Amino acid sequence: MKAKVDQNLCIGCGICEGDLPEVFLLGDAGVAEVIMDPVEAEYHERLKQVVLDCPTTAISIDGDEADDADADALSEPEEHFETTTDCCGDDASDAVDEEPNHTNTERKEKMKVKVVEDLCIGCGICEGIAPEVFSLETEPYAVVLLDPVPEEFHAATREAAEACPEAAIVIEE
Ligand code: SF4
Ligand code: SF4
Questions:
Q1: Average pLDDT of each block of 10 consecutive residues along the chain (173 residues)?
Q2: Cα-trace Rg, the chain
Q3: What is the pLDDT of residues 69-100, one digit of tens each?
Q4: Last residue of one domain, picked from the residues 101, 124, 139
Q5: Which ligand is located closest to the Cα atom of residue 168?
Q6: Which residue in 60, 71, 162, 167 has its CB near the most CB atoms, within 10 A?
Q7: How many CA atoms lie within 13 A of 72 on its CB side?
Q8: How far apart are CA 67 and CA 171, in angstroms?
Q9: Of 101, 119, 144, which residue is a domain's last?
Q10: How many angstroms separate the alpha carbon of residue 9 from the centre of ligand 1?
Q11: Cβ distance 37 to 91 under 8 Å?
């Protein structure tokens, strides 16, 4: 999987770098650059989320099937599932229409997330991974912004919970 940034569209907001600093870097020109090519499999899910988060749709994913198919087929069988969703990454409503079994399950699934304030050390890791869900702007600990958490942010929320060094994030589904 390869990521590309259309530098004519990029407004330099930094969301991509904040979400996925392993792959994106705001360069000297004030636009995002891709610093991992191809993007390693462990970052594919987060990359798809960043594509959705970019406010100007400047980020695109391509070359995944052509370039990665052989290697991924050998090393990561579940990659086939991921690549089938790539075509719909820029239009969540299409994904709902085209994957009824998958989405029927998630549509019923409500995610609630809490931060245990006494445990939170305010490191900001969760906000870096899921800024739509967590914020440290108003308090010295992470505050949950979305309750329940919309489906498109479930993956990032789970990732933030796993990354939290204090296990302060509790997810209820
Ligand atoms: S999120 Fe989009 S607009 Fe913002 S810096 Fe990244 S590529 Fe540019
Ligand atoms: S990652 Fe955990 S400890 Fe760090 S700010 Fe978020 S909830 Fe608090």
A1: 89 87 88 92 90 86 54 43 46 47 53 92 93 94 93 94 93 84
A2: 17
A3: 444 444 444 444 444 444 444 444 444 444 44
A4: 101
A5: 2
A6: 60
A7: 21
A8: 36
A9: 101
A10: 8
A11: no
Q: Which domain holds residue 146?
A: 109-172
Distance 34 CA to ligand 1 centre (A): 11
Shared domain check, 73 and 54:
yes
Ligand 2, atom 4: nearest CA belongs to which residue? Answer: 123
Q: The CATH number of the domain where 137 resides is what?
A: 3.30.70.20
Give the number of whichever ligand sits closest to the CA of residue 18: 1
CA dihedral for 115, 116, 122, 124, sign (positive or negative): negative
How many domains are there within the chain? Answer: 2
Q: Which ligand is nearest to the CA of 117?
A: 2
Q: Measured from the CA of 163, which atom of ligand 2 is nearest?
A: 1
